[in-house]
Write a structure and sequence with these properties.
24% helix, Thiol Ester Dehydrase, Chain A, 3 helices, alpha+beta
């Protein structure tokens, strides 16, 4: 499956006590890239609601290689692999302004049913990823 790439600017309030991007903030960057990737193939939050499901994060492994600082523009790339059944493995890379690799990550996402969430009639149980969603990501 092809890579999706976006750029994000590091904000001052995202720094830790050492003046680097806080490790927890990188997960927000990764999630933002995944959302933008999904939107690019036509799956917005509204579309997910129509399908009666959503992807939820089950596991993530992040390797921090180099720090980023306020004002940096980061390039975040993501791609999917092994998208079958209820699960999808998503990979990420974050590069700094000098094209140096800062972060790598691998996440396991699971498709869950969201019907009835407001009425508490669902337990967000895993469901097979809808065919049209599989087709949208594998067609690129």
């Amino acid at each position: 499956m092809s890579k999706f790439t976006t750029q994000l600017r590091v904000r001052h309030y995202e720094m830790d006590a050492l003046g680097h991007v806080n490790n927890a903030v990188y997960q927000h960057y990764l999630e933002q890239a995944a959302i933008e990737h999904s939107e690019q193939v036509g799956f917005t939050l509204d579309r997910y609601q129509e399908l009666g499901g959503a992807f939820v994060l089950r596991r993530i492994a992040i390797e921090y290689l180099r720090p980023a600082v306020a004002g940096d523009t980061l390039t975040v790339s993501t791609w999917l692999e092994n998208m079958r059944g209820t699960r999808a493995t998503r990979h990420y890379e974050i590069y700094g302004q000098k094209e140096e690799l800062l972060v790598t990550a691998e996440a396991l996402w699971v498709w869950v049913a969201t019907e009835g969430l407001r009425s508490n009639r669902t337990s967000m149980r895993p469901r097979p990823i809808p065919t049209e969603l599989l087709n949208a990501f594998t067609a690129r």
